[in-house]
Amino acid sequence: MDKSRVAELVGRFGEKRILVIGDLMLDEFLWGKVSRISPEAPVPVVEIVKEEFFPGGAANVARNLAEFTKNASLMGATGVCRHSEILQQLLTSEGVGTAAIQFHPCYRTIVKTRVIARQQHVVRIDRETKTRLKPAHAATALAQLEELLPSLDAVIVEDYGKGVLEQAFTDEISRLVWHFGKVLAVDPNPQNPLTWRHATVIKPNRSEAFASAGVPFSDGITNPTEDADLLRVGKLLMEKWDMENLLITLGELGVLLFRKGEPPYHAPTRAREVFDVSGAGDTVISLFTLALTAGASPQEAAEIANHASGVVVGKLGTAIVTPAELIASFGD
């Protein structure tokens, strides 16, 4: 893909208005050093030297978008506590709209804490309670969505399987987005098997795609376009979800794009080094959606999303890609 074409598309990203709906989280990173083993158990003693917080889950998708457009906003529900305050402050500081987030004490703020020492991920600690969205809160969210949609270019639904997204709620999301003729991008979770309709693109990773298709998992081969199991899964999901585009992320093998009436398109990985895959899928769906709304073809959008992911996995932590980094990645 020509670098000037990428720059042209990225130049249009800033005017796009995108709403992200899904499970909100707060990512905490504890950076430390290890100099000894605990006398109490054969585990390292980590001396913490730095603490960082980042938006996680659906909030990380919005954070990725905010690097390219200041018209990114977020819809979801979270608790009323110190961690929810930190999350809101982070989002506000990065220019993400938070007016559609509902803060209620009946929800627990999801926090994922990662301890990292000597550039190695030592342990992750999850604090979460899966909680269904209250009917009254779902109704409020849908009313807000209907009000916002005329001014939006796209809606991204990010499912981390934590309870916010249920079938009746997502059916209404799909119906409303389709009614207003907007782009609908979905990042599904096979542990929360939902039926999707009217999606512009659905983006599972390989294991999620196999699970969603009900096919036993198999490892990939070097050329995904000759991977019989993967091609079968793609065909099954295109029929099951009846979508325009299916984008399957394949880790070190890049991405594979399925489209109606077209042969699968493979974009090989652009990563030079892989330090941390945290949030790479969030980057893919963010940039694919932005590119589509900016006028890119699905094939061009897949290339842009794949390049963006290649930049992100070369960073530690829940990282994002900048416009300059994305454009520069096409100059290699």
Descriptive account of the structure:
- The chain is α/β, with parallel strands linked by helices and 332 residues long.
- The chain has a single domain, classed as Ribokinase (UDP-N-acetylmuramoyl-L-alanine:D-glutamate ligase, 3-Layer(aba) Sandwich), CATH 3.40.1190.
- Helix content is 35%, strand content 27%.
- A nine-stranded mixed beta sheet has the order 5-4-1-8-9-10-11-12-13, with helices on both faces. Strands 3-2-6-7 form a four-stranded mixed beta sheet.
- Helix 2 packs across helix 8 (280-293), helix 6 packs across helix 7 (228-241) and helix 8 (280-293) runs antiparallel to helix 9 (298-312).
- The model has no long low-confidence stretch (mean pLDDT 92).
List the helices and strands and how they pair.
Layout: H1 3-13, E1 18-22, E2 24-37, E3 44-57, H2 58-66, E4 72-78, H3 82-93, E5 97-103, E6 110-117, E7 120-127, H4 135-148, E8 154-158, H5 167-179, E9 183-187, E10 201-202, H6 206-213, H7 228-241, E11 245-249, E12 255-259, E13 262-267, H8 280-293, H9 298-312, H10 323-328
Parallel strand pairs: 1-4, 1-8, 2-6, 4-5, 8-9, 9-10, 10-11
Antiparallel strand pairs: 2-3, 6-7, 11-12, 12-13
Helix pairs in contact: 2-8, 4-5, 6-7, 8-9
Features:
four-stranded mixed β-sheet; nine-stranded mixed β-sheet; 35% helix; 332 residues; UDP-N-acetylmuramoyl-L-alanine:D-glutamate ligase
